[in-house]
Design brief:
Structural class: alpha/beta
Number of helices: 24
CATH architecture of the largest domain: 3-Layer(aba) Sandwich
Distance between the termini: 69 Å
Number of strands: 14
Strand content: 5-15%
CATH class of the largest domain: Alpha Beta
Largest sheet: 6 strands, mixed
Number of domains: 4
Length: 571
């Protein structure tokens, strides 16, 4: 179904097209809009329906052969190539200005002026002679020619944005069969005069979903018979596992496998997906892989029971009581990240860890977040983990001299975390030892429903069991009967991080200096000179914060709850 000025439909059927293309055609043919800002997954490959075979092409190819086959003239512009005549060169050549000046410009200001001049010429032909030429124009990588942040007042940049905006506002042009496409990966990268134009329609291209991936795999099977030989028996499973990847990445993988004469096996799908997605996201995210379960997390049984109940509800698709997010808070070294790994293994869903999405270039940080959010929407069910959330999430009111980047980050993340359409699909997990520094709006119910405090060991026996368990992982057997020999030396408030360091020290000392000694004697020697890496006042302060943040006091061990309620400590 191609776009035409008369409203008739040609070319591929509507059910052959992606939803975004159907929406775009409806907006144009109803004359509701003639300018479209295409954003999102615009760098991906797209299926180009054909009579005999299926080809993959870029977005410009898709627009040309699927959306614009009946247009008389199609022009394109980008910074590298300047203005190009994609279709209708003989018609364009009749323009008197072009006959006199056949060299088309490359610079943005001159190019947009020439395009505007030609569009007005075609509009005047229609008014004066009744000649209706359907004109299409594709501005590729529009954010490079008309960026959002020029680094100061730019006369030329604002003039370009105003001219392109006029393509939809000037009656001579808006009444003419003219359609323009501005292609940008992120809306935040494009000049606000264009993004905020009420007469322009925003069309978001999502990452391919399960049905899109299945269709693509089926369509490409004749071309990649070896690579997709095993997949042909169960395209649904392969498509489900590959959600979050792009068709471009899959095409590259299939080409490599076909060249190597290796089939795409079901067993390596998880590894392949992780590699493809992380590569596409340019280091913005990281998948946390874990074979651990909550059984591997020491202590805090009530917390683990609560989390298991949530997982059971999720698995039954009973979403009414499923939290939108968790806040893990507690002193440094208490195992907040480790708990996330255990939760991931228990739930059996991907955990996406947001890495350093902040960028030194103005506007790039917001663009990075847009890209991350698109990925999350495509993944299906997943946990999203933000460590050191008090530093990463930004502030509502930023006075740090960062051009209010922090404030924009806060607004974007707050909006995404509060999107109720994500309930049951995306669960946010924030971790922080200073939850008091996280904006209160980000911690409210509807964004973070469950706040889980994580504490150090509350007794010498707990601390001993923690050390013994970590030593056993390194082949050093410490028996429960050894507790009495070191009970007086076990430091109070021992965290898993500190216990890990102790276990490493015991192993090192035993392997390099004292293999003749019993392990319990080595442990005693290491405990004699032990110094807590976290000062006691800092530890106590962070414990108090965690208790105050807890959404349920059942998460707090009785010993710590009594300590917190003591007038000397709790204020």
């Amino acid at each position: 179904m191609a776009m035409t000025d008369s409203g008739t439909k040609h070319g591929p059927r509507e059910n052959d097209l992606p939803d975004w293309a159907v929406e775009l055609i409806a907006l144009y043919e109803s004359k509701a809009s003639s300018q479209f800002i295409l954003y999102g997954n615009v760098e991906d490959r797209l299926l180009l329906p054909g009579d005999d075979s299926v080809e993959l092409g870029n977005l410009a190819d898709f627009l040309m052969c699927v959306m614009l086959p009946r247009f008389d003239v199609v022009l394109s512009y980008d910074l590298g190539n300047g203005i190009r005549i994609e279709k209708g060169g003989e018609v364009f050549a009749q323009w008197p200005h072009f006959k006199e000046n056949p060299q088309l410009p490359k610079s943005p200001r001159a190019a947009v002026e020439i395009l505007t001049h030609y569009f007005r010429y075609c509009g005047n032909l229609r008014r004066l002679k009744g000649l209706r030429l359907q004109i299409g124009c594709i501005v590729k990588a529009a954010h490079l020619a008309i960026p959002a942040f020029p680094g100061g007042l730019s006369y030329d940049l604002n003039a370009i944005a105003l001219l392109i905006r006029e393509w939809t506002a000037e009656s001579l042009l808006s009444e003419h069969p003219l359609v323009t496409f501005l292609i940008t990966e992120n809306l935040n990268d494009l000049h606000p005069l264009l993004v905020n134009n009420p007469r322009a329609s925003h069309i978001k291209l999502p990452l391919p979903g399960r049905d899109d991936l299945r269709h693509c795999l089926e369509a490409l099977t004749p071309r990649y018979r070896v690579a997709l030989g095993e997949a042909a028996a169960n395209f649904d499973r392969y498509a489900e596992q590959l959600c979050g990847t792009t068709l471009s990445a899959i095409e590259g993988l299939l080409r490599t496998r076909e060249y190597q004469r290796r089939g795409l096996g079901a067993d390596d799908l998880v590894k392949i997906k992780k590699s493809l997605v992380e590569k596409e996201c340019s280091g913005l995210i990281e998948f946390i892989e874990s074979k651990r379960t909550l059984d591997d997390f020491h202590g805090q049984e009530k917390t683990k029971n609560w989390l298991r109940q949530d997982i059971a509800l999720w698995n039954r698709n009973d979403l009414a009581a499923l939290p939108m997010g968790y806040l893990l808070c507690g002193p440094v070294g208490t195992g907040k990240t480790f708990l996330v790994e255990c939760l991931a293994g228990e739930a059996g869903v991907p955990v996406v860890k947001l890495k350093n999405f902040r960028d030194k270039w103005v506007g790039s940080t917001e663009g990075n977040l847009e890209k991350i959010f698109r990925l999350l929407q495509a993944l299906g069910r997943c946990f999203v983990f933000i460590d050191e959330a008090d530093q990463a999430l930004g502030r509502r009111d930023s006075d740090s001299g960062d051009s209010n980047v922090s404030g924009r980050i806060y607004a974007m993340i707050a909006q995404e975390m509060g999107n109720t359409a994500n309930r049951g699909r995306i669960v946010w997990i924030l971790a922080s030892s200073r939850p008091d520094l996280i904006e209160i709006d980000l911690k409210r119910p509807g964004r973070i429903d469950v706040k889980i405090p994580i504490f150090p060991a509350t007794s010498a026996l707990e601390g001993f069991q923690l050390i013994a368990g970590l030593c056993r992982r390194r082949g050093m057997d410490i028996q429960p009967s050894h507790f009495a020999a070191v009970e007086s030396l076990i430091p109070s408030g021992l965290t898993p991080g500190a216990a890990e360091a102790l276990a490493v020290k015991v192993y090192r000392y035993h392997r390099t200096q004292s293999q003749s000694l019993e392990i319990i004697d080595v442990l005693r020697d290491c405990l004699v000179d032990y110094q807590n890496p976290v000062p006691s006042d800092v530890m106590n302060f962070q414990i108090q914060l965690a208790i105050r943040e807890a959404s349920d006091l059942d998460f707090v061990p009785p010993a710590l709850l009594a300590w917190a309620r003591d007038a000397e400590h709790y204020k």
